[in-house]
Design brief:
By secondary structure, the protein is α+β, with helices and mostly antiparallel strands. Helix content is about 20%, strand content about 30%. It folds into 2 domains: about 20-190, Alpha-Beta Barrel (7-stranded beta/alpha barrel), CATH 3.20.110.10; about 200-330, no CATH class.
């Protein structure tokens, strides 16, 4: 665990950052793999933070695990403390034992938060600013309890993990979460529907076609304007492959393999892969909280490329008809 080299201190500032949320625990499941699994989780987060241009990493772990790590893996905690204090890694969540908070009493949850904050501060020397738990921990008193426990921000990402718990549908992804006593705390909430392949934030609502994997609907919620014709999803690819001799292909009539690569709370990304004669096509569609555009990246891989495979983005298209052949692009609000 100590062999991971840290980034050079004189590295140029990164222009692009990726944020990864690393969830693990000792009380919940890590005990089966031993405390070493928690130490390895922290080392993995630090290794990702050393990537260039840069990967910002959030760690969601029960605070009790940090107490045990400080006792049994002090060298890991000492190194992790430096990363946290340098802003390369952020600890989020902070409950002491990662409970299903929606099933507990208010007093129990307040103890989870306050004891968790205390344990993290003693172990790492910094408070936790963001209440973001992977386990279901949502009820109307959370803004009040989180503020009292010292948090500055909160997330409702856990609602999409375990269920809505009575939360009404919302059209905004960044909002002020107001408790029943009037306490307000900033929160984020990027919405997505896996079953219906829908991604939504405060600006856009888009739907992905399970056949072909293109964006079949893109609505600007401010104007109500539909930017995509249902008969012409974006992107699609059809024509003939003149390298394989396999004949014509049409992505609009091809079943796709769907994989969710990112599931919020800041960004959601769905990957749609399909196999056409002589070529494989992957489309990645992303929507971020607060963004007025959806990113679409397309990769075409030739199965029979003369050089033995690789990226091949320009198959010959019959009659020069092709909705889009791109290596990367973006769907902007109309």
């Amino acid at each position: 665990m100590s062999n991971i080299e840290t980034a050079k201190s004189n590295a140029a500032p990164a222009a692009l950052y990726m944020t990864i949320a690393n969830h693990w625990s000792y009380v919940g499941i890590g005990w089966q793999s031993g405390l070493e699994s928690c130490a390895q989780s922290l080392c993995d987060s630090m290794a990702m933070a050393d990537y260039e241009p840069s990967v910002k990493t959030c760690v969601n772990m029960d605070a009790g695990a940090f107490e045990l790590l400080a006792e049994h893996y002090p060298e890991v905690i000492a190194r992790f403390r430096r990363y946290v204090q340098a802003g390369k890694v952020e600890v989020v969540g902070g409950s002491y034992g990662q409970p299903m908070g929606s099933m507990n009493s208010g007093e129990s949850n307040l103890r989870q938060m306050t004891y968790g904050q205390q344990a993290v501060q003693l172990s790492l020397g910094v408070p936790i600013d963001t209440f973001l738990e992977e386990e279901e921990f949502s009820h109307p008193q959370i803004p009040q309890l989180a503020k009292l426990a010292g948090y500055q921000f909160a997330s409702q990402a856990q609602c999409d993990t375990w269920g809505q718990h009575g939360n009404p549908p919302r059209t905004d992804s960044v909002f002020q979460w107001k408790g029943i006593d009037g306490t307000v705390i900033p929160a984020t909430d990027l919405r997505y529907d896996k079953a219906n392949l829908i991604l939504e934030n405060e600006y856009l609502r888009l739907r992905v076609d399970p056949v072909g994997g293109g964006v079949v609907s893109l609505v600007d919620k401010r104007s109500g304007l539909e930017c995509i014709q249902a008969s012409q999803p974006f992107p699609t690819l059809h024509g003939e492959n003149d390298h394989s001799g396999a004949g014509g292909f049409d992505s609009r009539k091809t079943e796709v393999a769907i994989v969710w690569l990112e599931e919020g709370p800041v960004r959601a990304t769905v990957s749609c892969s399909l196999a056409l004669p002589g070529v494989r096509m992957e489309t990645r569609i992303s929507l971020a909280a607060g963004a007025a555009h959806a990113d679409v990246a397309v990769r075409l891989i030739a199965d029979d490329h003369p050089g033995g495979g690789g990226i091949y983005p320009t198959p010959r298209v019959a009659n020069q008809v092709c909705e889009v052949v791109i290596s990367k692009g973006a769907v902007e609000v109309c």
